[in-house]
Q: What sequence folds into this?
């Protein structure tokens, strides 16, 4: 159970990081 929770948390953080990267690249493109 603990391992599953840790895996879920890692997946969530990875998704957030990817989303943040996408929004940053979009904003950067708009600024450029």
A:
């Amino acid at each position: 159970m603990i391992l599953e929770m840790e895996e879920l948390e890692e997946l969530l953080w990875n998704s957030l990081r990817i989303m943040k990267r996408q929004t940053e690249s979009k904003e950067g493109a708009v600024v450029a």
User: Anything to note?
Assistant: The chain is about 95% helix and 0% strand. The radius of gyration is 14 Å.
